[in-house]
Amino acid sequence: MTRALALALPITMITGFPPAPDIAPAHPASATVPASLPSVEVVGTFAAYRPGSTAITYDPAVVPAGATAKLSITRTGYGTDVAVTLTGLTAGRMYGAHLHVGACAADPEAAGPHYQNHRDPVTPSVNPVYANPGNEVWLDFTTDAAGSATATVSHGWDFRADAPPHALVLHAEHTHTAPGEAGKAGARVACLTVPSR
Known about the structure:
Layout: H1 2-8, H2 11-15, E1 40-45, E2 55-57, E3 68-75, E4 80-87, E5 94-100, E6 141-142, E7 149-155, E8 167-171, E9 188-193
Antiparallel strand pairs: 1-3, 2-9, 3-4, 4-7, 5-6, 5-8, 8-9
Protein name: Superoxide dismutase copper/zinc binding domain-containing protein
Domain Superoxide dismutase copper/zinc binding: 73-191
InterPro entries: SOD-like_Cu/Zn_dom_sf, SOD_Cu_Zn_dom
């Protein structure tokens, strides 16, 4: 009898915390889930935009021409590891960095919103239920005295083959987390295109 009552108690009474909000799955159970993408490595040297550019600096005072980025996206048996190594940036500075759904172009906004494993039905996404480091790929970092940095993140999910990320965008600030500000990280200061695969 005691066991049956315990099972009937609300989660809040047992744990002291309310249940996590419901998030619709990225793929409905009845849909065919697309295959995930293979591993990839992208290396770029940032420069001012020109047609065909794959590594663009939008603010040379923050991301100088000649700065470099190496992005690795590795599929594992449990999900995906993402790592970025950067050199030649402004020393001792905080940056935000995320994977975005669009490719880099002359307009920094062309890279679109952040890639999300569970897509926020509202845009722009500033709700921390969706705009958070567990549902997006956040690679924030602070450069050392030489202007170098490395950031890594591991996720227990793979990128969707039907809508993968196409860019690494560097931002002027670390990423905000408060409701209404979640996911924002200041101006887009550079962009590295992730090729289609």
